[in-house]
Amino acid sequence: MNYKTGGSGTVTTTNQNSTKQDILRHILKEGETTAQQLASVLEISPQATRRHLKELGAEGLVYHKAVQQGMGRPQYLYQLSEKGRDRLPHDYGEFAVSFLHTLAETAGEEQVQAVLQKQWQRKATDYREKIGTGSLEERIARLVELRQAEGYMAEYHRLEKDSQGIQQQFLLFEHNCAIASVAESYPSVCGHELEMFSAILPDCTVERTHWLYRDEHRCGYLIQLEN
Known about the structure:
It comes from Dactylococcopsis salina (strain PCC 8305). This is Iron-sulfur cluster biosynthesis transcriptional regulator SufR. Pfam families: HTH_24. InterPro entries: ArsR-like_HTH, SUF_FeS_clus_asmb_SufR_cyano, WH-like_DNA-bd_sf, WH_DNA-bd_sf. By secondary structure, the chain is α+β, with helices and mostly antiparallel strands. It has two domains: 13-87, Arc Repressor Mutant, subunit A (Orthogonal Bundle); 94-225, Muramoyl-pentapeptide Carboxypeptidase, domain 2, CATH 3.30.1380. The chain contains nine helices and six strands, in the order αααββααααββααββ. It has a four-stranded antiparallel beta sheet, with helices on one face. A two-stranded antiparallel sheet has the order 1-2. Strand 5 (204-210) and strand 6 form a beta hairpin. Helix 2 (35-42) crosses helix 3. The longest helix has 23 residues, at 109-131. The chain is globular, with a radius of gyration of 21 Å. 19% of the residues are buried.
C-alpha cells in the first residue's frame, strides 16, 4: 500500500486520516490486534503505526490492554471503543429507532413486532430475487456484495467439501451491524436476521455462530447445504 507525501516529505492530513480509517477497519474485522500486526498488514512502519494508535487512543476511538507473554515487556492488544465503531461508515441513524418508539407508543409493541417481521420477509424476497440461482458459493458471494453495499463489513469463508468435492459448508461473517441502534432497542431483529438468511437460502440450514449483541466482535453464520 502506497502513501503519497507532501513536498516536505510528511504524510498529508488526508492520507493520515485514510490510514487511521484503515486501522479502525482492521481492528473491527479482527476484534483485537497488535501494532506489529497492523504495521505488517497496512505496510507502514511500526513507528508510524504506534503514532496513529496513540492519536486514535487520545480521541477515544481505540483502547489497549497489556498481555504478558513470558519474560520481558508485555504486548499491547488494541480494540475499538464504541466511539471507534461509530466513526466507521454505517447506514443507520436515530430515525428508525425513533419511528419504532413512536409506533410502540401509538399502536403497541405487538404492532412493532409485526412491522419488523414484515420487513425481514420483504427484505428476504428482495435478496432472493437479486441473488438468483447458481451454486451455493455463487449465491453467498452475491449476498455478501449486497450486504457490503448496505454498510455491513461482510465476508465469507469456505469450510468442508463432501465426498464428491462439492463445497457444502460456508461461514458468513459480518464485522459490524448496519442496524446496531435498532438491535439495541429491539433485539428481536437479530432473530429476524437469522430467519431472513434461512429464507434466502431455502436449501440450506443456517445457524448463528457469533453474535455482536453478546459482546462478540462480529456476527457469524454457519451455512450448510441440506442433503
